[in-house]
Amino acid sequence: MTRTADLAALEKVTPPAAVVFDCDGTLMDTEPCADAARSTLFARRGHVYDDAARDSLIGLSLAQGGEAMARLLGGSAAELAEELAQELLAAVADGAQPMPGAMDLIQHLAARVPIAVASNGPRVLLDKSLAHGGLSRWLPITISGDDVASPKPHPACYLAACTALGVEPAHTLAVEDSPIGARAAHAAGMTVLGVGALTRGPYAHAYAPSLDDAVLRRWLAEW
Fold first, then answer.
1. Do the beta carbons of residue 48 and residue 42 sit within 8 Å?
2. Is 83 helix (H, G, I), strand (E, B) or coil?
3. Cα(7)–Cα(23) distance, integer angstroms
4. Which of 2, 93, 140, 208 has the most crowded Cβ, counting Cβ within 10 A?
């Protein structure tokens, strides 16, 4: 995986009027929790949770994940989604932590521009995760997967976040770690900063390997 940030597209434009973050895998390191929850669910049904299964589930809402698991495992999509939700809540309560650099970045930006979160996760999981990571106080505006009719890759959650912030999507930066999320933010008309190798592609305008990347921090310091 490349470790070189590419912020050329951001450096050419005026700093955004607001920033909207994805949560899972972007602000909070919940992917290990999700992997543990899915692995438990797969094992109960005599299946192995491998890389192919992971790739098919990453970035999906719970409902979408339930449908994908039903195709892989059989059974009721709704029941699988509910079972996964309970496993995720337990895993997040046990071990979710902020991503490296997330706390410092949120505090830095909160003093400069309005910020929010737009997540595919359900409300109860989003609130628990941000509270567990100590980020809630900086993020009074959050949009969960429960708050919109259509989850990512539909742009609804990002459009709702921009409306709540009182800013135009075209003047807002989205920060995402998944292709599904980057696609949603791009469809909303936002500038998209991809964080991590999975966001390399047509939907991210700029890229940083992590939130604590030195190049990204230097760019933010100029706001």
1. yes
2. helix
3. 21
4. 208
Among 198, 158, 152, which Cα is nearest to 179's? 198
**Local confidence pLDDT in tens for the 223 residues of the chain:** 456 899 999 988 889 999 999 999 999 998 888 899 999 999 999 999 999 999 899 878 889 999 999 999 999 999 999 999 899 888 887 778 999 999 999 999 999 999 999 999 889 889 999 998 999 999 999 999 999 999 999 999 999 999 999 999 999 999 999 999 999 999 999 999 999 877 778 999 999 999 999 999 999 988 8
- Please state, in angstroms and rounded to a whole number, the distance separating the CA atoms of residues 42 and 44: 5
Residue 3 located in a structural domain: no
Whether the CB-CB separation of 114 and 18 falls below 8 Å is answered with yes
Q: pTM of the prediction?
A: 0.86
Indicate the residue among 95, 125, 149 that finishes a domain.
95
Q: Domain check: are 17 and 112 in the same one?
A: yes
Look at residues 187, 219, 183, 220 and name the one whose alpha carbon lies nearest to residue 204.
Answer: 183
Q: How many CB atoms lie within 10 A of CB 14?
A: 8
Smallest CA-to-CA distance from 121 within 91, 152, 94 is with 152
Tokens of 102: 């997330």
The string over 77-98, giving b where at least 16 C-beta atoms fall within 10 Å of a residue's C-beta and e elsewhere, is: beebbebbbebbbebbeeebbb
Nearest to 99 by CA among 176, 151, 162, 36: 176
In a domain, 1, yes or no: no
